[in-house]
# Entry
Amino acid sequence: MKDRIPGFRNEKEEAKFWDTHDTTDFRTDLEEDQETVFVRPEIGLIEVPASTWKRLLHEARRRRSTPQRLVQRWLQQKLTGAK
# Structure
């Protein structure tokens, strides 16, 4: 009898299992994911002076964020009129 996919308590346990097993051995037990959609965000570059970058890094660290997330948040707020 063919092995079945066991139940997993967490993602770490599942990852460990798949590190040692081939998914093709379990084809009949796997279902196609019909819900997950991967969207590639548009990526652009914006040049800023070094002094502005340093201030942005400082502010992002102070807020426990990254410069990219902070700028994204600020732009979204500005463009949507949110505060």
Notes: Residues 32 and 44 are 33 Å apart (CA to CA). The chain has a mean pLDDT of 87. Residues 50-80 form one domain.
